[in-house]
Every structure is written in structure tokens, then in C-alpha cells.
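Sanity check

After download, print the first record. It should look like this:
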Amino acid sequence: MRKTAAKERSRLNVALRGVSCTMASLDSRTSTRVLRHRRSRSYFKDGAWTSNLDEANNFPTVRQIAETCVRHHLREVDLVLRSAGFLEITIRLS
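Expected C-alpha cells:
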């Protein structure tokens, strides 16, 4: 039984490595990390909301995103990762 569990973890880790590599390739110089309100689809900008993606705060780190969400008591928001305008990944935060 122990060998089966180790084999299963090994199989799962292969898939996770592929995801990690893909996520790591989202270079902050060519991608944006913004917060978007789920219902209004507005983007976070300096304590308020804007409908213009270009005006939104672009967060360089996940830590800054977390701190902003806590500081401004943000609810119903998604982290939107957009790479070079052709790939968009949405992560539900709250």
C-alpha cells in the first residue's frame, strides 16, 4: 500500500511540475497581475475601481496582492494574470 501511495504522488507531481513551469513563464515584464471585482468586472486602482484595465494597479508580487486585499477588505475579487495580451488566467481569491 505504501508503494502505491508513493507512486501516485510521483504521478501527480509530474503534472504539477508542468503547471509550475507554465506559471513561472508569466514574466512580470511581459504580463500583468490585476485584481478584478467579480460582479462589476471593474479593476482595482488605488483604493477604488475602474473599468479601464490600463488604469488598474499592476501588482509585481503575490504578497502585494494579498496585502492589498487585506488592507482594503476586498471581497468577491479575482486575480487576473494576463501575459502579452494573448493568455489570461483568472484565479478566484475571495
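If your output differs, re-run the checksum step. Summary of this record's structure: Strands lie at 31-37, 43-45, 48-50, 77-83, 87-92.
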